[in-house]
Amino acid sequence: MATDWAVEKAVMVKNEEFIQKAEALIPKLYHKEEVPVEIISYKAEQKIANEKANAGFGKDDKIIFDFGHNHAGYFQFHIKCVGSPQDAPVFLHIKFCEIEREIDEDCQNYSGWISKGWIQEEWIHIDETPRHVKLERRYAFRYAVITVIDTSQKFEISFNEVKRVSVSSAYGTVSPIQTMDEQLKEIDEVSVRTLKNCMQTVFEDGPKRDRRLWLGDVRLQALVNYQTFRQQDLVKRCLYLFAGMPNQEGMIPACVFEKPVPLMDDTFLLDYALFFLPVLVEYYENTGDRETVEELAPSAFHQIELALAYTDEQGIICEEGVNCGNGIYHCFIDWNEQLEKQCAMEAVLIYTVGYAQKLCKILGDYVGRKAYKSLEEKLKQAARQIFWEDEKQVFVSGKERQVSLASQVWMILAGVVEQEEALKLLERTKNTLITMITPYMHHFYAEAWIRAGNPEKALNHIKQYWGGMIKAGADTFWELYNPDNENESPYGGVCVNSYCHAWSCTPAYLFREYFEAEK
Questions:
Q1: CA-based, 20 to 30 A from 163: which of 229, 332, 335, 424?
Q2: pLDDT score at 48
């Protein structure tokens, strides 16, 4: 499934002052050398556990270095000949795997729509040994798998000083949550590790792929960061990067590149653009940095103006991808290909208008706050009239009146339905066929249970969903997880799936924010 999110002729209007402020906030990266906790080799197709890496390896032999946990970092080793002098190049295939099942995946025939350049493997020739080999590219991996494609019939090779140099801008330790539940402790530990791997010079969405700054991810990463590493300047850097590179209409891009120079992508998602406002408000709530908020508030408010251009007189937003007179918009919401997004997008708009009122309060703009309150009431009333179906007692979306979990969740988070009515709605729709695919959407589902007044249901869902990932082999949480199909991929193949992805780290936030945990 290829996306169609690129906006034609998107022209960047760069704010150099904002970019300079962002660049002044580039964080220090912390490096840590790590050695394998286990070595497994296959010689003559015979598995040998815990064999020393300095044993001789020849043609078709394979050696697996297990570093214990998935981290982002650099791989290096020392190689030398065993036996006769080297009379041919050493030819190696090196594969980096985030989870165990990737070790045996054959990605040579991958033909999905995401570039196979993201597949973590290298072929290298080594003409002379002994030699210390440092691979320049950063990888996200727990396992490094070296296959000896060939040496010669006269000599073999051995490996010494095998290391991973892990890297992150996160520093310090995070206090574990206060609970006697061992499963929750493990989920929290994996959540924190996931965030740490994604904290580089920006909040990356995934250290394997895409290694970019996506606004939807940043919103969730920042919430977890406030409760864990508290690297507030990294949030500030990301805010300035986004605000510094809007398009000609002032819309904030869904993602930006930071290297070789800051540059916006030509991808614009209306829900992501709107989330700039909650990120800014939550940044202030956790830092008290009024100067930054005052400087970036106009950009935040403008995203609502842009979204309102796609609404009718009632305030109902048009369907995604449909020209409603003011062009078309795209949004994300979730990866489910069947999902009709109009209802959820309407709710995201209402949700963001609620944050606009908070931003007005911070700024002392009580006239603006009143205006946004009036707009919120108008939009909520229209949403109940258009999207609520009395017969089924659910929210529906689009011309086909689709029932999805995403629609119900976002209408609850937007406050269109509250408490008892929201609880009944979640119970009524929890088994709908149009369900959720990504941990991103599952986070909001857990929050909806909390908002509806049943945090225990949220906790049970976290145990089932994120706990299910751990049972499936995760030691960092994944980009997407379908319990009914662990090989789910929106890209046409699991070889490019990301098994450490920022938007899946939120249990660490939910535990500390809503449950009995150490603040």
A1: 229
A2: 72
Residues 416-443 pLDDT 10s: 999 999 999 999 999 998 999 999 999 9
Confidence of residue 7 (pLDDT cuts 50, 70, 90): low
Q: DSSP E strands: which ranges in 50-103?
A: 62-83, 90-97
How many Å apart are CA 263 and CA 270, to the nearest integer? Answer: 19
Type of residue found at 254: A
pLDDT per position as a tens digit, 218-260: 999 999 999 999 999 999 999 999 999 999 999 999 999 999 9
Measured CA to CA, the distance from residue 247 to residue 236 in angstroms comes to: 20
CA distance 276 to 130: 52
Contact 55, 158 (CB under 8 A): yes
pLDDT of residue 519: 38
What is the rounded distance in angstroms from the CA atom of residue 468 to the CA atom of residue 464?
6
Helix (H) or strand (E) holding 160: strand 155-168
Tokens 């960047």 -> residue = 12
Q: Residue 4 corresponds to which tokens in the numbers above?
A: 């169609």
Q: Alpha carbon 317 to chain centroid distance?
A: 27
Rounded Cα gap, residues 132 and 77, in angstroms: 6
Using DSSP's 3-state secondary structure scheme, residue 153 falls into coil
Q: What domains are defined for the chain?
A: 16-28+169-174+182-485+496-514 (1.50.10.10), 30-168 (2.60.120.260)
Overall average pLDDT of the 165-190 stretch: 96
Task: Read off the tokens for 460.
Answer: 């049970």
Q: Which residues of 100-116 are buried (b: 16+ CB within 10 A; e: fewer)?
A: eebeebeeeebebebee
What does the block give as tokens for 456?
Answer: 């225990």
Predicted local confidence at residue 325, as pLDDT: 77
Judge whether 98 and 500 are in contact, CB under 8 Å. yes
Cis bond leading into 130, ω under 30°?
yes
Q: How would residue 50 be classed by pLDDT, with cut points 50, 70 and 90? A: low
Give the position of tokens 């809503």.
Answer: 514
Which residues share a beta bridge with 72? 140
The answer to whether residues 345 and 307 touch, using CB atoms and an 8 Å cutoff, is: no
Write down the pLDDT at residue 458.
98
Contact 320, 330 (CB under 8 A): yes
Per-residue pLDDT for 45 more than 80? no
Sign of CA dihedral 58, 59, 61, 62: positive
**Residue 4's pLDDT is what?**
59
CA 447 – CA 510 distance, rounded (Å): 8
Alpha-carbon gap, residue 502 to 479, rounded angstroms: 8
